[in-house]
Amino acid sequence: MSTWIIVGVKFLFHVPITIELFFSYILIQTLGILLIVYIMESNKEKQSLLYKIIRMEKVEVVSHLAASISHEIRNPLTTTRGFLQLLNESKAIPEAEKGYLTVAIQELDQAERIIRDYLTFAKPTTEEIESLNLKKEIERAINIIVPFANMNIVELSSELESCYIKGNAGLFQQVLVNLLKNGIEAMPSGGTLSIAGTVEKTLAKVTITDNGVGMNDLQRNRLGEPYFSTKETKGTGLGMMVVFRIIESMNGSINIESEQGKGTRITLAFPLNI
Ligand code: ADP
Ligand code: MG
What we know:
Blueprint: H1 2-13, H2 19-89, H3 95-118, E1 130-133, H4 134-151, E2 154-160, E3 164-167, H5 169-185, E4 191-200, E5 203-210, H6 217-222, H7 239-249, E6 253-259, E7 263-271
Parallel strand pairs: 2-4
Antiparallel strand pairs: 1-3, 4-5, 5-7, 6-7
Helix pairs in contact: 1-2, 2-3, 4-5, 5-7
Bound molecules: adenosine-5'-diphosphate and magnesium ion (MG).
Residues 178, 182-183, 186, 210, 212-215, 219, 223, 228-231, 235-240, 264 line the site of adenosine-5'-diphosphate.
EC number: 2.7.13.3
Enzyme class: transferase
InterPro entries: HATPase_C_sf (IPR036890), HATPase_dom (IPR003594), His_kinase_dom (IPR005467), HisK_dim/P_dom (IPR003661), HisK_dim/P_sf (IPR036097), Sig_transdc_His_kin-like_C (IPR004358)
């Protein structure tokens, strides 16, 4: 704009382009714009850094809490389970009432499972890293989630290529199951959940697509923050945090695309283990 104005002024009014004109119209404006852009960008960066630090601090607190809680709760659970098991074998208790004991034991097992599932992020270093067959792992996760999908009238479709990545099988299952579960929960009136496992150059990719409620930008940015859940009493808001942690420990990456009302696509990428 400044250049055109100067050219216009020169030709229309035959004004000579002096040094002052050059400075005031071209140099200062350009420098000014650069300066403003620079300030805006660095401000933005600072802001996002601040958010990151706040988020990391939260994760830290939760991890410490989780580590101690899981330890303290597991022990009494194990003891209780042992005594219930003994009672279950006792002859003094009528068969009809043993059903209650079985239910109690099952419920304890469920509680133990929840602790195990949600509290692994307290230990970010994966033990027993092995070579995982992506196709097999995804199939296993799908098998686990089938009853839940059926209950929600969600159809599962999968397209899987066989390849190998490095990681801990248990933790990787946790990632897949959490993501599949979220996908299903995002479709309260049913739909299709597609899962793809593909190889792209040096990366193994897992794509999970749902056509559910989706997220807005704010929700998408808060994903992975502890206790962020839109499911009220049904959600814990810990699932995605666990997912982020585990993927990080596997040197993988996660990409989330989502549109409110249309659905969500989550893409994981891991280095191939050849
Ligand atoms: P929870 O499932 O217990 O609510 P998560 O950490 O798994 O906790 O997920 C956090 C929130 O992210 C969910 O409450 C939901 O709002 C949003 N979310 C996660 N996955 C999806 C998805 N596939 N579609 C729409 N929203 C999602
Ligand atoms: Mg979840």
